[in-house]
Amino acid sequence: MQRMNVGIVGTGGIALASAAWMAHRGHAVSLWSPRGGGADALRSKPLAASGVLDASVRVGVADTAGELAHGADVLLIAVPVNWHRSVMDALIPHLQPGQLVIVSSMSSLSALYLYEAALERGIPISVASFGTTVLTARRHDGAAVKIMTRRTSLGVSCLPRSGQAAALAACESLFGDGFTVDENALATALTNINPVAHGPLALFNWTRIERGENWPQYHFMTPRVAAVIKQLDVERRAVANAFGLQVRTIERHFAQSFNTESEQLSDIASELHRKRGGPPGPTDTQTRFLSEDMPYGLVFTLALSHVAQIPAPATEATATMAGLIVGEDFTAANDLIFALRLPAESVSGLLARVNASR
């Protein structure tokens, strides 16, 4: 296995978990906090990981996007998707031809935005994407993270498609085996099931969130809540089919991520609650379940449904109700839809872009 220099954007749970995992595998890792200060503790102490990885590793800290990108073989973007465009814009002037950037996880075709924006500057890079994260984790503090899960199977796509083999090899070197190939970046974007699960969970448990109650997510994914989630999932897969793509069901996602055995979604939720006892649902009204997953998940799916001219009534209703309950127009919050020119795009035109060979 070749030792690589890896730069990670972000200092949240997934960023710290990824840093610990990669460093433990022998790679040289540095982190950059886009908001500043998030990695300061790591200047003087090692990063401690617990859970499925028990390790203490040393990682570097970069002060700027340029410092992080300089000399990196691979860059990993591990920030919420509503930060993707701003951190990508910060990175682009410093990217070097031939670098690989991994977006973990990718929504709203942010990988396509990065790939095309770099090309416009004459910088040919490869951009790999995951539909969800390789690891699930919670940050304890600036130098400690608990890694709960290492997913056993995860799809990866690459722009351009000619870089797919090299991207797959890099992911396996960084994280280990278990990666499969997604057809393209659009398939990866539509593989992300967080929006279809998180929207109904947040809306139908909103008073618990407002009251700051302790509520285990899967216990409150009751049969009727699961039925709404299932309808959103049906519409997500219908949009994918309109672009000629087959994406896994939400039930299959849970089976691949957590080795569940139940067939019905409500039974899967009960099984996960018995096995894991959580995780706890959000207790902050600014939860990413709505602030991130609505504009960059369901609203993005709606934009694709308009391109494909197919109905998605449950998706539209959920996104609208989410906006009503927090007093925000989520259709205006996504800063990628217009940057990617989706309202003027066609099915064939978008497919040609995500299937670019170089």
Description of the structure:
The chain is an alpha/beta fold and 358 residues long. The protein has 2 domains: 5-183, NAD(P)-binding Rossmann-like Domain (Rossmann fold, 3-Layer(aba) Sandwich), CATH 3.40.50.720; 193-354, N-(1-d-carboxylethyl)-l-norvaline Dehydrogenase, domain 2 (Orthogonal Bundle), CATH 1.10.1040.10. 43% of the residues lie in helices and 16% in strands. The protein is built from 15 helices and 12 strands. The strands form 2 sheets. An 8-stranded mixed β-sheet has the order 5-2-1-6-7-8-11-12, with helices on both faces. Strands 4-3-10-9 form a 4-stranded mixed β-sheet, covered by helices on one side. Strand 3 (47-51) and strand 4 form a beta hairpin. It is globular.
Q: Which fold name fills CATH's third level, the topology of the largest domain?
A: Rossmann fold
**Major sheet strand order:** 5-2-1-6-7-8-11-12
- Beta-strand fraction estimate: 15-25%
Instruction: Summarize the biggest pleated sheet.
Output: 8 strands, mixed
